[in-house]
Write a sequence for this structure.
């Protein structure tokens, strides 16, 4: 059986996880987060593709590519682009691939500029404030939808 492809996307500054404001984002690295998702996916017959970029256009190009690759779902932490990027939101809407949004921190309990997500209206759901576990919860939600 060919495994289904699920794309996990990490936006700006998330490459610094582990050392970036650990009191807010914890000590797990991006590699740790991806490794846990790859293991969880493998158990369920899913191939996890991971992509990180600090550039809005790079993230948008990767979303477009996902369509032609047959990616069945996207899990994205758009970082600060969550609060600013109409272009990223439009890319998700354009490809119409079911997408879950994840934030390590509880954005609603932080500065007011983090309270609004321009991405959320084009997602299936949003998981916030659960730390790295949030990605695994999103993957479980994706896998449940695929059943
Ligand atoms: C974040 C929250 C954003 O507001 C912030 O800009 C990030 C990380 C989170 O995972 O909690 O870069 O997306």
């Amino acid at each position: 059986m060919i495994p289904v492809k699920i794309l996990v996307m990490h936006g700006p500054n998330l490459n610094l996880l582990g050392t970036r404001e650990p009191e807010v984002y914890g000590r797990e690295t991006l590699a740790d987060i991806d490794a846990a998702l790859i293991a969880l996916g493998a158990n369920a017959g899913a191939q996890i593709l991971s992509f990180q970029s600090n550039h809005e256009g790079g993230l948008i190009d990767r979303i477009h590519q996902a369509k032609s690759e047959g990616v069945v779902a996207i899990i994205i932490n758009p970082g600060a682009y969550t609060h600013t990027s109409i272009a990223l939101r439009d890319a998700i809407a354009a490809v119409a691939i079911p997408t879950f949004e994840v934030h390590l921190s509880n954005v609603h309990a932080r500065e007011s500029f983090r309270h609004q997500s321009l991405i959320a209206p084009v997602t299936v759901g949003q998981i916030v404030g659960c730390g790295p576990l949030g990605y695994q919860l999103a993957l479980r939600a994706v896998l449940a939808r695929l059943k």
Residues 4-146 form a domain with the Rossmann fold fold (CATH 3.40.50.9100).
